[in-house]
Write a structure and sequence with these properties.
Helix content: under 10%
Number of strands: 16
Number of helices: 2
Strand order of the largest sheet: 7-6-9-10-11-12-13-14
Radius of gyration: 20 Å
Structural class: mainly beta
Distance between the termini: 45 Å
Shape: globular
Amino acid sequence: MKRYLSISACVACLSLSIATGHHQAFTAKNSPTPSLNEPLKVLSVKLNPAKPQPKGASTAKASWLDGLEVEIQNTSGKAISYLVIYVELSVAASKETPLRIPFSYGQAPVPNAKSGKVEIFQPREKVELRASRSVCDRMRKELVESGRVPASTKDLQTNIHLVIFEDKTSWSAGQLYFPVPADPMKWIAAEELTRNNSLDSSAFGMSYSKASYNSGSRTQPCYRHIGFHLQYCCEELYVGSKDFVDDPNGHSQPNLVEACCSPGDCCSYYEVQGCS
């Protein structure tokens, strides 16, 4: 089993309320409702607490937990060249999107990528992705100022954002995608490819525009999700931002989300959410 330090991950600041004063590793399972065709199996997510801190006004609100680690296995039957997975930290008394810590493996297949040996995640192989010791001050500040605390270590969930295979096909959110020959940064959904019966570049001629989306509108138009494009985020992290086209019969909407590598080093991109 290989071990890797994920420089795009960060250590989250959590409340002392989840610390027990012992040095055992906290382990959380992956999402309780994974897609049947997920190419990865999350074996464990561990948080190894740092040495106990004396109780006081500051430490009563927050303490550092080191050693955030995700162990995964390639269950796809195909070699993987790049992947992004999130560890999501739910917090008590909050209905907002959970805090998300990104982990990446491999090298994104983008033009002018760094030369050198590219790590390939082989079928059935297991790897451990470890967080760097850099601190997510943005998350810490939000937790401390709001007074919110993680309800339980059981609330740690994982979300497989993107997997790109060695043959350039990819997987995201339960769907298979194929590369667009005319644009190395774009992939088309298998469902859309079947719909068009060809890799017609015009399918990407009406990509969703950020400026045209009004989240305050009471009646939102629906779209059809057609694929995604690789978008640089931060450090060595690339994310798959979903593409959409207008479709009166569509059943999806763009959902703007954020990923961060370190304080102030973040990006926004689109994922898919349902539309009715």
